[in-house]
Amino acid sequence: MRALTLVFQHRDFYALNKPAGAPMHANDEQLSVVHQLAAQLDEQLWPVHRLDTPTSGVLLVARSQPAAAKLSQLFADHAMHKTYLAVAAGKPKKKQGWIIGDMDKVRRGNWRLLHSKENPARTYFTSTTLQPGYRLYRLQPQTGRTHQLRVALKSLGVPIVGDTRYGGEANAHLHLHAWQLAFNYDAEAIVITAPLPDYGFFPAVTAQITTKDGVAN
């Protein structure tokens, strides 16, 4: 079990760069990622949100119960501005815009996006060519539903690389990374960016966002 890397430290919380495969809930082989960090730092910590086990990137953990409540409320109020990066093969139905629809649970814990919009999941995205046959997607979810981004790209006909659960191209890793969180905390504007993993297509993604944005970390 490799050591966890912090990308931001605050008196009330930490942000770590969660590795792909690190679980939010303990299993027979691994501690939960929050308990692993707590043991690593010798400090009691509280989870405030979650990432799917195969997803990497920015994960906040609180250092006290009051901080956990405050951060959880920011997520509940949609005051956390989240940006994910994903890689998918093929041509999407559209290259940018909104993906909006209710989500319905189907077989084996999977979900699907519906055309109805009674209580919809909402995701804004843009995309650019990464290399022939593959595109980089910048995803900004406005809601926080289970598998929301994976289902959103599936609905465009371009499931994420490594997401065989939703029909994506086989790969050792799911190519979905929680890249950035931006929010206000006690009147302080905070932007946290997690370096991209060094496997699969992500080195090419790092090169692209360095060239275009000057913001790779």
Reading the helices and strands in chain order gives: EEHEEHEEEEEEHEEH
Largest sheet: 10 strands, mixed
Shape: globular
Number of helices: 4
Structural overview:
The protein is of the alpha+beta class and 217 residues long. It has helices spanning 33-41, 65-76, 148-155, 202-213, and strands spanning 6-9, 13-18, 46-47, 56-62, 81-89, 97-101, 103-105, 111-113, 121-131, 134-141, 176-185, 188-193. The strands form two sheets. Strands 1, 2, 3, 4, 5, 6, 9, 10, 11 and 12 form a ten-stranded mixed beta sheet that branches. Strands 7-8 form a two-stranded antiparallel ribbon. It is globular and about 45 Å long. The model has no long low-confidence stretch (mean pLDDT 93).
Question: How would the blueprint of this fold be written?
Answer:
Elements lengths: L5 E4 L3 E6 L14 H9 L4 E2 L8 E7 L2 H12 L4 E9 L7 E5 L1 E3 L5 E3 L7 E11 L2 E8 L6 H8 L20 E10 L2 E6 L8 H12 L4
Parallel strand pairs: 4-11
Antiparallel strand pairs: 1-2, 2-4, 3-4, 5-10, 5-11, 6-9, 7-8, 9-10, 11-12
What tags apply to this protein structure?
19% helix, two-stranded antiparallel ribbon, 217 residues, 34% strand, globular, 12 strands, 4 helices, 10-stranded mixed sheet, alpha+beta
Could you provide a short overview of the structure?
By secondary structure, the chain is an alpha+beta fold.
